[in-house]
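Per-residue structure
===
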Amino acid sequence: MERNLPNILVTGTPGTGKTTTSEMIANVTGLEQINVGDLVKSKQLHEGYLAEFDTHILDEDKLLDEMEDMVKEGGKVVDFHTCEIFPERWFDLVLVLRADTQPLYDRMEKRGYNQRKLQENIECEIMQVVLETARESYAPEIVIELQSNTIDDMESNVDRVKQWLDAWKTQHGKQ
C-alpha cells in the first residue's frame, strides 16, 4: 500500500538530539512525531525495568504491534535510539544523528545518566554502533548520517528534511 506521506525514522545514540530534531521536523512539516520511549512507558510496552542501566526492558513484539497501524498511513516522524527492530518497509528515510563526544557527554550528564550508562553510550557513539546498525538494517540510499552538535546543526538538518519531504511529495504526486 502506498502511503500518502512518508515515514521518517530519527535515530542515534542517546543525547544526539533525536527528540529535539523530531519535534522540530514535526513543527516545520506537519508530520506527527512518535517518541517511542514515551510510547513504551505510557502503554507499558516493556518487560520491567533494568536499574543498572536506568532503562526499561523493551517488549519488541508489543511495541511493533502497537505501532503497525500508527505508521501504516505514513506522515510520521519516529524517534528512537534503536533502529533494527523496525521493519524496513515502515520508513522512507532514516536519519542517524551523530554528535562529538564532548557535547554528547555534557547532554547525558545534564540528564543525570549514571556513569555506566554514560560510558556505554559514549563508546557506542565512538564506535558508530547506531550508524552501522542502520546501514545493515535499511537500504543504503535512505540512511543519512547527520551531525547534531549544535542548534545550528539541528536547524540545518530540519531544513534538509523539509527539502527532502517536498521532493518526495512532488515525486509521488502528493502536492
User: Anything to note?
Assistant: Strands lie at 8-12, 32-35, 46-50, 55-58, 76-79, 93-98, 143-147. DSSP finds seven helices and seven strands in the chain. The radius of gyration is 16 Å.
